[in-house]
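assembly run, all chains below
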Amino acid sequence: MSEIFGFFLESVVPRNMLIAYFLGVTLAISETEGLRTSLVKGTKFSLGIFFAAMAGLLIADILALELEFLVVWVFFLTAVLMSLILMFFGELEGDFYGMPKMFLFFMPVVGIQWIMFQGNYDFTQLVTGIFAHALGYYLAFVLIATIKEQIKISEAESYFKVIPVILIGLGVAAMAIQGFFFLY
Amino acid sequence: MFKFNNMVEQVFLLGLLPILGGSRNVLTAVIVTVVLVIIALLSRLISRLIKTEVLADAHWIFILAFGISLAYVAYLATAYLYPEVYQYSGLYILLVGVTPLTYIGCKDNVSFSNLWKKINIFFVTILIVAFFRELIGFGSILGIELLEVGYAPLSILGKSAGSFVFLGSLWILFRFLAIKGKVNLDYFELEGAELNE
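ok done. output:
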Protein backbone atom coordinates (compact mmCIF):
# COMPACT_ATOMS: atom_id res chain seq x y z
CA MET A 1 0.00 0.00 0.00
CA SER A 2 1.50 3.34 -1.03
CA GLU A 3 1.89 6.02 1.61
CA ILE A 4 -0.65 8.37 0.03
CA PHE A 5 -3.26 5.62 -0.35
CA GLY A 6 -2.75 4.67 3.29
CA PHE A 7 -3.25 8.31 4.26
CA PHE A 8 -6.42 8.42 2.15
CA LEU A 9 -7.89 5.31 3.81
CA GLU A 10 -6.89 6.56 7.25
CA SER A 11 -8.73 9.84 6.64
CA VAL A 12 -11.87 8.11 5.34
CA VAL A 13 -12.28 5.48 8.04
CA PRO A 14 -10.32 5.59 11.33
CA ARG A 15 -9.98 9.39 11.32
CA ASN A 16 -13.43 10.04 9.89
CA MET A 17 -14.24 13.69 10.50
CA LEU A 18 -17.72 12.95 11.86
CA ILE A 19 -17.13 9.78 13.84
CA ALA A 20 -13.62 10.42 15.18
CA TYR A 21 -13.66 14.24 15.43
CA PHE A 22 -17.45 14.85 15.84
CA LEU A 23 -17.35 17.51 13.10
CA GLY A 24 -20.72 18.04 11.45
CA VAL A 25 -22.76 15.75 13.71
CA THR A 26 -25.38 18.44 14.35
CA LEU A 27 -25.55 19.26 10.64
CA ALA A 28 -26.08 15.60 9.75
CA ILE A 29 -28.70 15.13 12.48
CA SER A 30 -30.67 18.21 11.46
CA GLU A 31 -30.45 17.83 7.67
CA THR A 32 -31.04 14.11 7.16
CA GLU A 33 -34.59 13.00 6.47
CA GLY A 34 -35.12 10.04 4.17
CA LEU A 35 -32.19 8.04 2.85
CA ARG A 36 -32.92 8.96 -0.76
CA THR A 37 -32.95 12.73 -0.16
CA SER A 38 -29.87 12.42 2.03
CA LEU A 39 -27.84 10.98 -0.84
CA VAL A 40 -28.20 14.29 -2.70
CA LYS A 41 -27.93 16.51 0.40
CA GLY A 42 -24.85 14.65 1.57
CA THR A 43 -23.20 15.22 -1.81
CA LYS A 44 -23.87 18.94 -1.60
CA PHE A 45 -22.48 19.24 1.92
CA SER A 46 -19.44 17.08 1.19
CA LEU A 47 -18.61 19.10 -1.92
CA GLY A 48 -19.15 22.27 0.10
CA ILE A 49 -16.71 21.05 2.75
CA PHE A 50 -14.18 20.01 0.09
CA PHE A 51 -14.18 23.31 -1.85
CA ALA A 52 -14.34 25.52 1.25
CA ALA A 53 -11.47 23.62 2.87
CA MET A 54 -9.39 23.76 -0.32
CA ALA A 55 -9.97 27.49 -0.76
CA GLY A 56 -9.27 28.28 2.90
CA LEU A 57 -6.09 26.21 3.06
CA LEU A 58 -4.72 27.57 -0.23
CA ILE A 59 -5.28 31.14 0.96
CA ALA A 60 -3.72 30.26 4.32
CA ASP A 61 -0.73 28.80 2.48
CA ILE A 62 0.04 32.06 0.66
CA LEU A 63 -0.25 34.18 3.81
CA ALA A 64 3.06 35.51 5.07
CA LEU A 65 4.37 34.02 8.33
CA GLU A 66 3.77 37.23 10.27
CA LEU A 67 0.10 37.17 9.14
CA GLU A 68 -0.45 33.59 10.27
CA PHE A 69 -2.74 34.73 13.07
CA LEU A 70 -5.27 35.62 10.35
CA VAL A 71 -5.80 32.00 9.27
CA VAL A 72 -8.73 31.53 11.64
CA TRP A 73 -10.53 34.44 9.97
CA VAL A 74 -9.67 33.04 6.53
CA PHE A 75 -11.16 29.67 7.50
CA PHE A 76 -14.20 31.34 8.98
CA LEU A 77 -14.78 33.55 5.92
CA THR A 78 -14.47 30.64 3.49
CA ALA A 79 -17.02 28.75 5.61
CA VAL A 80 -19.37 31.76 5.46
CA LEU A 81 -18.92 32.04 1.70
CA MET A 82 -19.63 28.36 1.14
CA SER A 83 -22.68 28.44 3.41
CA LEU A 84 -24.01 31.38 1.35
CA ILE A 85 -23.46 29.34 -1.84
CA LEU A 86 -25.31 26.39 -0.28
CA MET A 87 -28.13 28.74 0.74
CA PHE A 88 -28.30 29.87 -2.89
CA PHE A 89 -28.86 26.22 -3.83
CA GLY A 90 -31.69 25.92 -1.32
CA GLU A 91 -29.84 24.36 1.63
CA LEU A 92 -29.34 25.58 5.22
CA GLU A 93 -32.48 27.70 5.14
CA GLY A 94 -34.52 28.41 8.24
CA ASP A 95 -33.76 27.89 11.90
CA PHE A 96 -32.74 24.93 14.03
CA TYR A 97 -33.85 25.28 17.64
CA GLY A 98 -33.90 29.05 17.29
CA MET A 99 -30.52 29.46 15.58
CA PRO A 100 -29.88 29.97 11.83
CA LYS A 101 -28.99 26.68 10.15
CA MET A 102 -25.91 28.17 8.51
CA PHE A 103 -24.24 27.96 11.94
CA LEU A 104 -24.27 24.19 11.64
CA PHE A 105 -22.08 24.27 8.54
CA PHE A 106 -19.33 26.38 10.11
CA MET A 107 -18.24 23.72 12.61
CA PRO A 108 -17.22 20.98 10.13
CA VAL A 109 -15.60 23.42 7.69
CA VAL A 110 -13.53 25.39 10.20
CA GLY A 111 -12.72 22.19 12.09
CA ILE A 112 -11.41 20.23 9.11
CA GLN A 113 -9.44 23.24 7.85
CA TRP A 114 -7.78 23.56 11.24
CA ILE A 115 -6.95 19.84 11.41
CA MET A 116 -5.37 19.92 7.92
CA PHE A 117 -3.57 23.19 8.67
CA GLN A 118 -2.03 21.73 11.84
CA GLY A 119 -0.79 18.71 9.86
CA ASN A 120 1.62 20.80 7.70
CA TYR A 121 0.92 18.63 4.65
CA ASP A 122 2.28 19.11 1.14
CA PHE A 123 -0.13 19.85 -1.72
CA THR A 124 -0.76 16.21 -2.71
CA GLN A 125 -1.44 15.16 0.87
CA LEU A 126 -3.64 18.23 1.35
CA VAL A 127 -5.88 17.46 -1.64
CA THR A 128 -5.99 13.75 -0.77
CA GLY A 129 -6.72 14.43 2.89
CA ILE A 130 -9.50 16.93 2.26
CA PHE A 131 -11.07 14.72 -0.40
CA ALA A 132 -10.89 11.71 1.93
CA HIS A 133 -12.42 13.65 4.83
CA ALA A 134 -15.23 14.93 2.58
CA LEU A 135 -15.86 11.37 1.35
CA GLY A 136 -15.80 10.10 4.94
CA TYR A 137 -18.30 12.78 5.90
CA TYR A 138 -20.58 11.71 3.06
CA LEU A 139 -20.48 8.08 4.22
CA ALA A 140 -21.22 9.06 7.82
CA PHE A 141 -24.03 11.40 6.65
CA VAL A 142 -25.67 8.53 4.76
CA LEU A 143 -25.12 6.23 7.76
CA ILE A 144 -26.97 8.70 10.01
CA ALA A 145 -29.80 8.98 7.45
CA THR A 146 -30.09 5.20 7.39
CA ILE A 147 -30.18 4.87 11.18
CA LYS A 148 -32.75 7.68 11.35
CA GLU A 149 -35.01 6.07 8.77
CA GLN A 150 -34.86 2.69 10.50
CA ILE A 151 -35.49 4.14 13.96
CA LYS A 152 -38.51 6.12 12.78
CA ILE A 153 -40.29 2.98 11.57
CA SER A 154 -39.21 0.81 14.50
CA GLU A 155 -41.48 -0.05 17.42
CA ALA A 156 -39.01 1.18 20.03
CA GLU A 157 -40.17 3.32 22.95
CA SER A 158 -40.53 7.00 22.12
CA TYR A 159 -37.68 8.08 24.41
CA PHE A 160 -35.21 6.14 22.29
CA LYS A 161 -36.26 7.97 19.13
CA VAL A 162 -34.38 9.38 17.26
CA ILE A 163 -31.24 11.29 18.22
CA PRO A 164 -30.09 9.35 21.34
CA VAL A 165 -30.05 6.13 19.37
CA ILE A 166 -28.18 7.80 16.50
CA LEU A 167 -25.50 8.84 19.02
CA ILE A 168 -25.21 5.36 20.48
CA GLY A 169 -25.13 3.93 16.94
CA LEU A 170 -22.30 6.31 16.07
CA GLY A 171 -20.54 5.22 19.27
CA VAL A 172 -20.70 1.59 18.17
CA ALA A 173 -19.49 2.60 14.68
CA ALA A 174 -16.62 4.54 16.32
CA MET A 175 -15.62 1.46 18.32
CA ALA A 176 -15.62 -0.61 15.14
CA ILE A 177 -13.59 1.78 12.99
CA GLN A 178 -11.07 2.57 15.70
CA GLY A 179 -10.25 -1.11 15.63
CA PHE A 180 -8.56 -0.41 12.29
CA PHE A 181 -5.88 1.71 13.95
CA PHE A 182 -3.60 -1.32 14.21
CA LEU A 183 -3.12 -1.04 10.43
CA TYR A 184 -1.31 2.30 10.75
CA MET B 1 -46.97 10.52 21.55
CA PHE B 2 -44.77 12.33 24.10
CA LYS B 3 -43.09 15.41 22.54
CA PHE B 4 -39.45 15.93 23.36
CA ASN B 5 -39.05 19.59 22.63
CA ASN B 6 -37.45 21.32 25.57
CA MET B 7 -34.46 23.36 26.64
CA VAL B 8 -32.32 20.36 27.58
CA GLU B 9 -32.66 18.87 24.09
CA GLN B 10 -31.92 22.31 22.63
CA VAL B 11 -28.70 22.58 24.65
CA PHE B 12 -27.69 19.00 23.75
CA LEU B 13 -28.15 19.69 20.05
CA LEU B 14 -26.77 23.20 19.76
CA GLY B 15 -23.83 22.40 22.00
CA LEU B 16 -23.26 18.88 20.67
CA LEU B 17 -19.74 19.46 19.33
CA PRO B 18 -18.18 20.92 22.53
CA ILE B 19 -20.03 18.35 24.67
CA LEU B 20 -18.69 15.45 22.60
CA GLY B 21 -15.22 16.86 21.95
CA GLY B 22 -14.59 18.72 25.18
CA SER B 23 -15.49 15.85 27.50
CA ARG B 24 -12.20 13.98 27.32
CA ASN B 25 -11.69 14.55 31.03
CA VAL B 26 -13.13 16.71 33.81
CA LEU B 27 -10.46 19.42 33.52
CA THR B 28 -11.07 19.78 29.76
CA ALA B 29 -14.82 19.99 30.38
CA VAL B 30 -14.33 22.83 32.87
CA ILE B 31 -12.02 24.74 30.50
CA VAL B 32 -14.39 24.35 27.54
CA THR B 33 -17.27 25.59 29.68
CA VAL B 34 -15.30 28.60 30.92
CA VAL B 35 -14.42 29.53 27.30
CA LEU B 36 -18.04 29.10 26.24
CA VAL B 37 -19.30 31.26 29.13
CA ILE B 38 -16.82 34.06 28.41
CA ILE B 39 -17.59 34.15 24.68
CA ALA B 40 -21.35 33.82 25.25
CA LEU B 41 -21.44 36.73 27.69
CA LEU B 42 -19.16 39.00 25.66
CA SER B 43 -20.94 38.29 22.38
CA ARG B 44 -24.26 38.99 24.10
CA LEU B 45 -22.86 42.32 25.23
CA ILE B 46 -21.66 43.10 21.69
CA SER B 47 -25.01 42.10 20.21
CA ARG B 48 -26.73 44.60 22.51
CA LEU B 49 -24.35 47.36 21.43
CA ILE B 50 -24.62 46.96 17.65
CA LYS B 51 -27.70 47.93 15.69
CA THR B 52 -28.94 44.60 14.40
CA GLU B 53 -31.70 46.19 12.31
CA VAL B 54 -29.09 48.05 10.22
CA LEU B 55 -26.99 44.94 9.60
CA ALA B 56 -30.03 42.64 9.16
CA ASP B 57 -28.96 38.96 9.16
CA ALA B 58 -25.32 39.97 8.58
CA HIS B 59 -25.08 40.80 12.28
CA TRP B 60 -24.51 37.07 12.90
CA ILE B 61 -21.36 37.16 10.77
CA PHE B 62 -20.09 40.16 12.71
CA ILE B 63 -20.78 38.53 16.08
CA LEU B 64 -19.30 35.20 14.93
CA ALA B 65 -16.12 36.91 13.73
CA PHE B 66 -15.80 38.46 17.17
CA GLY B 67 -16.52 35.13 18.86
CA ILE B 68 -14.04 33.11 16.83
CA SER B 69 -11.33 35.69 17.50
CA LEU B 70 -11.96 35.27 21.24
CA ALA B 71 -11.94 31.49 20.82
CA TYR B 72 -8.56 31.71 19.09
CA VAL B 73 -7.18 33.72 22.00
CA ALA B 74 -8.58 31.09 24.40
CA TYR B 75 -6.99 28.37 22.24
CA LEU B 76 -3.57 30.03 22.47
CA ALA B 77 -3.99 30.68 26.20
CA THR B 78 -4.84 27.00 26.74
CA ALA B 79 -1.72 25.98 24.82
CA TYR B 80 0.32 28.06 27.27
CA LEU B 81 -1.51 27.23 30.51
CA TYR B 82 -2.74 23.66 29.98
CA PRO B 83 -0.60 21.92 27.32
CA GLU B 84 -2.26 18.49 27.85
CA VAL B 85 -5.74 19.94 27.32
CA TYR B 86 -4.48 21.81 24.24
CA GLN B 87 -2.87 18.68 22.81
CA TYR B 88 -6.04 16.56 22.81
CA SER B 89 -8.92 19.06 22.89
CA GLY B 90 -7.53 22.36 21.57
CA LEU B 91 -9.58 22.03 18.39
CA TYR B 92 -12.83 22.02 20.37
CA ILE B 93 -11.81 25.13 22.32
CA LEU B 94 -11.33 26.89 18.98
CA LEU B 95 -14.64 25.55 17.68
CA VAL B 96 -16.53 26.96 20.67
CA GLY B 97 -16.26 30.14 18.58
CA VAL B 98 -18.57 28.70 15.90
CA THR B 99 -20.88 26.67 18.15
CA PRO B 100 -24.53 27.81 17.89
CA LEU B 101 -25.12 27.46 21.66
CA THR B 102 -22.48 30.15 22.32
CA TYR B 103 -24.54 32.73 20.46
CA ILE B 104 -28.04 31.85 21.61
CA GLY B 105 -27.90 34.71 24.10
CA CYS B 106 -27.41 37.20 21.27
CA LYS B 107 -31.04 36.80 20.24
CA ASP B 108 -33.35 39.58 21.35
CA ASN B 109 -35.97 37.20 22.73
CA VAL B 110 -33.58 35.29 25.00
CA SER B 111 -33.38 36.72 28.51
CA PHE B 112 -30.22 36.61 30.60
CA SER B 113 -31.73 34.14 33.08
CA ASN B 114 -32.68 31.89 30.17
CA LEU B 115 -29.14 32.04 28.82
CA TRP B 116 -27.70 31.27 32.24
CA LYS B 117 -30.02 28.27 32.61
CA LYS B 118 -28.80 26.93 29.25
CA ILE B 119 -25.17 27.39 30.25
CA ASN B 120 -25.84 25.50 33.49
CA ILE B 121 -27.46 22.64 31.58
CA PHE B 122 -24.44 22.57 29.28
CA PHE B 123 -22.02 22.53 32.20
CA VAL B 124 -23.80 19.73 34.04
CA THR B 125 -24.05 17.66 30.85
CA ILE B 126 -20.42 18.02 29.78
CA LEU B 127 -19.30 17.33 33.36
CA ILE B 128 -21.31 14.09 33.60
CA VAL B 129 -20.06 12.86 30.21
CA ALA B 130 -16.47 13.84 31.07
CA PHE B 131 -16.67 12.16 34.49
CA PHE B 132 -17.71 8.80 33.06
CA ARG B 133 -15.36 9.06 30.10
CA GLU B 134 -12.38 9.78 32.32
CA LEU B 135 -13.38 7.20 34.94
CA ILE B 136 -14.11 4.31 32.60
CA GLY B 137 -11.90 5.26 29.65
CA PHE B 138 -8.78 6.31 31.55
CA GLY B 139 -9.35 4.90 35.04
CA SER B 140 -8.79 8.26 36.70
CA ILE B 141 -10.59 11.35 37.98
CA LEU B 142 -8.99 14.78 37.70
CA GLY B 143 -5.76 13.03 36.78
CA ILE B 144 -5.73 10.87 39.94
CA GLU B 145 -5.25 7.22 38.98
CA LEU B 146 -7.90 5.00 40.56
CA LEU B 147 -6.92 1.66 39.09
CA GLU B 148 -4.22 -0.47 40.63
CA VAL B 149 -1.25 -1.63 38.58
CA GLY B 150 -2.25 -4.58 36.41
CA TYR B 151 -5.82 -3.39 35.81
CA ALA B 152 -6.48 -1.69 32.46
CA PRO B 153 -9.27 0.83 31.85
CA LEU B 154 -11.78 0.36 29.02
CA SER B 155 -9.75 2.66 26.79
CA ILE B 156 -12.09 2.56 23.79
CA LEU B 157 -14.62 4.56 25.87
CA GLY B 158 -12.02 7.25 26.46
CA LYS B 159 -12.05 7.95 22.73
CA SER B 160 -14.86 9.30 20.55
CA ALA B 161 -17.00 6.18 21.09
CA GLY B 162 -17.26 6.97 24.80
CA SER B 163 -18.61 10.47 24.13
CA PHE B 164 -21.31 9.18 21.83
CA VAL B 165 -22.33 6.33 24.12
CA PHE B 166 -22.37 8.32 27.37
CA LEU B 167 -24.21 11.32 25.90
CA GLY B 168 -26.72 9.04 24.16
CA SER B 169 -27.32 7.17 27.42
CA LEU B 170 -27.71 10.39 29.39
CA TRP B 171 -30.17 11.66 26.82
CA ILE B 172 -32.26 8.48 27.04
CA LEU B 173 -32.17 8.64 30.86
CA PHE B 174 -33.39 12.26 30.83
CA ARG B 175 -36.25 11.39 28.48
CA PHE B 176 -37.17 8.31 30.53
CA LEU B 177 -37.34 10.40 33.70
CA ALA B 178 -39.38 13.04 31.87
CA ILE B 179 -41.91 10.45 30.71
CA LYS B 180 -42.17 9.02 34.22
CA GLY B 181 -42.83 12.52 35.56
CA LYS B 182 -39.65 12.61 37.66
CA VAL B 183 -38.41 15.74 35.85
CA ASN B 184 -40.53 18.88 35.76
CA LEU B 185 -40.45 19.84 32.08
CA ASP B 186 -42.17 23.19 32.76
CA TYR B 187 -38.83 24.33 34.12
CA PHE B 188 -37.15 23.51 30.78
CA GLU B 189 -39.80 24.93 28.47
CA LEU B 190 -38.63 26.55 25.25
CA GLU B 191 -39.56 30.08 24.33
CA GLY B 192 -41.79 30.63 21.29
CA ALA B 193 -39.16 31.47 18.68
CA GLU B 194 -36.95 28.54 19.70
CA LEU B 195 -39.42 25.75 19.01
CA ASN B 196 -38.29 23.26 16.41
CA GLU B 197 -41.52 21.81 15.09
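Helices of chain A lie at 3-12, 25-31, 35-62, 71-88, 102-118, 123-153, 163-178.

Chain A has one domain: 3-10+18-183.

not gonna interpret more than that til we talk
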